[in-house]
Amino acid sequence: xxxxxxxxxxxxxxxxxxxxxxxxxxxxxxxxxxxxxxxxxxxxxxxxxxxxxxxxxxxxxxxxxxxxxxxxxxxxxxxxxxxxxxxxxxxxxxxxxxxxxxxxxxxxxxxxxxxxxxxxxxxxxxxxxxxxxxxxxxxxxxxxxxxxxxxxxxxxxxxxxxxxxxxxxxxxxxxxxxxxxxxxxxxxxxxxxxxxxxxxxxxxxxxxxxxxxxxxxxxxxxxxxxxxxxxxxxxxxxxxxxxxxxxxxxxxxxxxxxxxxxxxxxxxxxxxxxxxxxxxxxxxxxxxxx
Length: 290
Description:
The chain is mostly helical.
């Protein structure tokens, strides 16, 4: 088993060096792209070469489509294909490092368990990365849904007070321009920039809906575009009905988050309970032995 570990270690290290020389320069432009959470970009070029050489993205289109869709929601549609490739290289780099670590553990412990641990971690860590990205996408969509009803209420009040739809939305965005990290207002700020750059209101609003990629935002966009020309009570009534539905969804999301937060406290409470039992029970057992 030690011989197998040595051979695998040499192949993994030598393979990285060879592949880096062959295809490393090809991916320099991709390496310059920024994506939050990537830590092994310097080790990624050989992995990117393997992904493209083996045509993994065309062999597993559904898997990579889901990753690219999540990346588009979190980082925008620009360079989404390149970022998907970079993220795949990051996952493979983690698997490669952990497999090397398993070989080193096997040599240190002189047991095949080290190689098994390294191989298992090499599969679990990339899976955890995908799960973490999915969690970020879900949180982003929920943040948009929880903030959208408040935005609708402000628009309804401003339109009812005599403002036009465009001015009402611009006024709401101007009030929240400091919240650039909030997904909803980040996309609204981009929509306002599009309007100032010469795009029509309809085109800017449709692009906003595509970037958000949330069903409720699409309904909001459709409602606004169908009714903003008519204005008056019809427009206010349509947004009020939509706002009522969105408030119910916001309540459901808040309730779900509360349940998730309480469920996360169960394990620490069990651990604390066990510690208390040990602290209280140990002296009693010691006295019984005496």
